[in-house]
Specification:
149 residues; two-stranded antiparallel sheet
Length: 149
């Protein structure tokens, strides 16, 4: 398969995963996150959300880097909620009632996207068990320099 075709298929797969995640968030939070009942409106909303995640999200993450470090990355959910609210401003057929529901929707979309990406092989999750490897052995036969104080 050619590299261009492979990239297009990966893009298509991530778009479908994003669309399913947005649809499930709309179903779970019905009456609080909604779109006009046309499939093409959902596809447009998920496509625009993907574009916002690709271009606007890195800028917001760079601006919010101190908060991201302080909250150990949990502020990412706030950024995702802001992007969901921005989607409401940009698209007249997509509605989110409040920032709280945008936060819950972002949490649902994130969890479902991670789960579907792991199931489809787009993301790898590894768990390492056992002791971490020790320091490398010195070629002189010892375990390295010893400093007595």
């Amino acid at each position: 398969m050619q590299p261009g075709t492979k990239k297009f298929l990966r893009f298509l797969q991530s778009w479908i995963i994003n669309t399913v995640a947005v649809l499930l968030a709309v179903i779970i939070l019905r009456n609080h996150i909604r779109y006009d009942d046309k499939l093409e409106n959902l596809l447009i909303a998920s496509f625009l959300l993907g574009i916002l995640n690709a271009f606007v999200r890195p800028i917001l993450m760079l601006i919010a880097l101190p908060l991201l470090i302080f909250t150990l990355g949990l502020f990412t959910l706030v950024i995702n909620a802001l992007l969901l609210c921005l989607l409401t401003v940009l698209l007249p057929f997509f509605h989110v009632d409040s920032f709280g529901y945008a936060f819950l929707g972002a949490l649902i979309i994130s969890v479902i996207s991670v789960a579907l990406n792991v199931l489809t092989g787009n993301a790898r999750v590894s768990v390492q068990r056992g002791r971490p490897p020790g320091p490398p052995k010195n070629s002189g036969g010892g375990n390295g320099p010893v400093i007595d104080v």
